[in-house]
Amino acid sequence: MKFPNNDIITLLDERLEFNLAESTNKDLILKEIWDDNFSNELKNLKLEYGTSQGNENLRQKIGEKLHVDKSQIVITNGAVFGIFLSMLCLCEKNDEIITVQPNFPPTLDLIESLGFKKVVIKLSFEEEYQIDVNKLFDLITEKTRLIILVSPLNPTGTIHSKSEILKISNRLNEQYLNCKLMIDETYREATYGNNTIIPTYAGLRDNIITISSLSKCHGTPGLRIGWLQSNNENFIEQVKIAKMDTVISNSVLDEFVASKVLEKEDEIFKSRRIHSIKGLEITKKWVEQNNQFINWIEPKAGALCCIKLNEERFTKSNIDEFYSTSKKAEIQIAVGEWFGASKRYFRLGFGYMEIEKLDLTLNKLSKILISTASKKQKNEI
Ligand SMILES: Cc1ncc(COP(=O)(O)O)c(C=O)c1O
């Protein structure tokens, strides 16, 4: 099979009542952005093909956010299509792509599905998912065409520092001119409360490509609107052609709604960031209360984090029981295996459900932790 099976597909197709698996913020309902203007413009919208680069007004708005010219932006069907098109346009057979693991599953799986060589740099819970830049340098070869880093990272919500990114970009500039550095910034603006937003890497270096979308921070994953940014004109031209050859254009309806989402972005962010900080606080308390069973790395952004089932209380067999009991209780959990980690870890999304429901679900999960964990040895009690 060309595309490997990954159970993350259940997130789309099997929705359980208590969803701790989702990585997005609260879904946006169209009425949140609906007004007379919206209604009038929508009524008159021509359902023609879009342009290969994507709606100009939408690119203008994204360009303003990123402080780059709209010519550097291509609208894509979600950030995932920006990743796909970049791989396709930059690599030939036998070329190598380096990325981190754990990671967003399609990023890991597409590389080999498209016939390229996947080289992974493993990030671990124990090292707080930080990257060892020197280890990364050891992996680069003359055949490496693309390095994909994700900041904030899915599934962990951890980030890479600017100095690390610049160090990598500089090294590529000195030694590997045919290799680009992609920063997947899909969760960049999903900050908590009044925390400062992490600055974008767009426009910072010629060899950096950034991608992002409206899926996670704006709560509109069903729009399927993302973008790719690069200041390399030839690359942008290639991406436009590849996009036309595969999907022709984005849906003009999606692009129209996306423009409206961006017009109301401040309000959309405000409510979602308040929601996220409440979710984060509840999660933090929950982790503390259950610290004999679990541990976590506190995320820096994104309504998601990684939880580890402690070794002393969870062995292989009761880890399986933990997941099966959760499923029976209608609690949806994103298993570490989806992201290239082990089952000992899972992703917990704290921004998707209403706060009361999140609280209720975490309480249910506490009971499942207690009932499925192995008992402590007598001499430990
Ligand atoms: C890190 C990362 N990149 C990209 C995507 C793709 O998002 P979309 O295509 O919905 O924009 C996701 C989705 O989960 C993600 O987690």
From TrEMBL:
- Domain of life, per the record? Bacteria
The family database entries (Pfam families) matched by this protein are listed as:
Aminotran_1_2
Q: Name one GO molecular function term.
A: pyridoxal phosphate binding
> Do you know which InterPro entries this protein is assigned to?
Aminotransferase_I/II_large, PyrdxlP-dep_Trfase, PyrdxlP-dep_Trfase_major, PyrdxlP-dep_Trfase_small
Sequence ranges assigned to domain Aminotransferase class I/classII large in this UniProt record? 19-350
- Protein's name according to its UniProt entry: Aminotransferase class I/classII large domain-containing protein
What is the organism field in this record? Answer: Polaribacter porphyrae
